[in-house]
């Protein structure tokens, strides 16, 4: 007697290989059997006719660090079919953190001072286990968080003793299961960190076989130089590197993804490299004066001194106040913004590349979030795969499951395979689509029929079941081997053109 039997379903197994029709049985939180399964009995039977079954989606780029504890239902992710989130991206993490004041920008994206209660990484993992979130959680350690712990101010390079203190704290986190180190070198809180600082810190990764992920020092004109810096750091540390939310930002940079992807491919001949991206031509973060321009629209999502400015365009606010865009931005700070700073052709070129995984980069604490928070994964399936025809459905699923699990070393996850953890999403390939928009971003997707996390039915027919079965996922051994294995899983494709 199985716990659950999903019968006669299209199986997209996460490898990128051909789909097939089968029944899938679940027992004790794992996939117990796959095949025709005649006469199989189960406590819960699901008819999979006209539906597709895939591994639960893995959101490799999130800022859900405090939300998996404060709002453990995780509906923005669960409703998309996401069963695992990777937190601690862009150099900012909830742990290990010991604040002396309010969190520095952009750590404030994760919450207020009261939300940073985890001075050690072990404290954080215990809090996740106690919260029992609806999704699995794996975590990176943020470089900016470490700088904040050990430096009196962040607008300078760290001294060697300070970096060594950071490295000791990183090593402790790695010993307690952290996946690796992330940096956000474009932000004011880390831009003064030179390459030598990051290299010295990243040396701890080699000892544990962990990853290096990075929000590049520049995604604008100097992007190639920033990518080379990332490759150099990872090569020095002898570990794989993932470039976060790869893009060519700024109107003057549009079209350069051909060069950027060629650089990524070239580096990949010498070392393990990868990237993630989100399926939208607009970014979102705190309001950054360096990005203020009249070349594209900038939407204000929140402002501490001027909350009434939320949901308005920066240009309209500046016109009302009779000031320049830059002066208006100064008056609004601290604030959040959506930047319509990418070209659709570049988005499609990066998204379709075989080295690319999918990550939402959603900001769950933003009162007017970018729609990627609620819609990224169904948008890949419905808009880009089905409607645009950018890539086959099996490749779309691979970018969100098997490839991600292999890169991040998530053992026995990311594939529909006997013995694997039963993280699964059942969806309708004909109707799946994102419904979140820039004007109305808080909307669940269509076509997600059911989501199982570790075998528990957690989302069904548009509603959470209340069964929260997510787990803390510590790093699984040396990730260099699993990262290398990801290449063998990738479907055949041609290099960038």
Helix-strand layout with pairing:
Layout lengths: L1 E10 L8 E8 L2 E6 L6 E6 L4 E4 L1 E3 L7 H4 L4 H4 L3 E6 L33 H11 L4 E7 H8 L9 H16 L4 E5 L10 H14 L2 E5 L7 H15 L3 E3 L13 H12 L4 E5 L5 E4 L11 E6 L8 E2 H8 L3 H8 L2 E5 L4 H9 L3 E3 L13 H16 L5 H8 L1 H6 L16 E4 L20 E6 L2 E5 L2 E2 L14 H11 L8
Parallel strand pairs: 1-4, 1-5, 6-7, 7-8, 8-9, 9-10, 10-11, 11-12, 12-17
Antiparallel strand pairs: 1-2, 2-3, 5-18, 13-16, 14-15, 14-16, 18-19, 19-20, 20-21
Short key terms for the protein model shown above:
single chain; 497 residues; alpha/beta; 9-stranded mixed β-sheet; 30% helix
The outline comes out as globular
Q: How far apart lie the N and C ends?
A: 52 Å
The fraction of residues assigned to DSSP E strands is 15-25%
* Tally of helical runs: 15
Mean pLDDT: 96
Structural class: alpha/beta
Largest sheet descriptor = 9 strands, mixed
Describe the structure.
The protein has helices at 67-70, 75-78, 121-131, 143-150, 160-175, 195-208, 223-237, 257-268, 314-321, 325-332, 344-352, 372-387, 393-400, 402-407, 479-489, and strands at residues 2-11, 20-27, 30-35, 42-47, 52-55, 57-59, 82-87, 136-142, 180-184, 211-215, 241-243, 273-277, 283-286, 298-303, 312-313, 335-339, 356-358, 424-427, 448-453, 456-460, 463-464. With 497 residues, it is an alpha/beta fold. Strands 1, 2, 3, 4, 5, 18, 19, 20 and 21 form a 9-stranded mixed beta sheet that branches. Strands 6-7-8-9-10-11-12-17 form an 8-stranded parallel beta sheet. Helix 5 (160-175) runs parallel beside helix 6. The longest helix is centred in the middle third of the chain and has 16 residues, at 160-175. It is globular and about 70 Å long. Mean pLDDT is 96; it is low at 492-497.
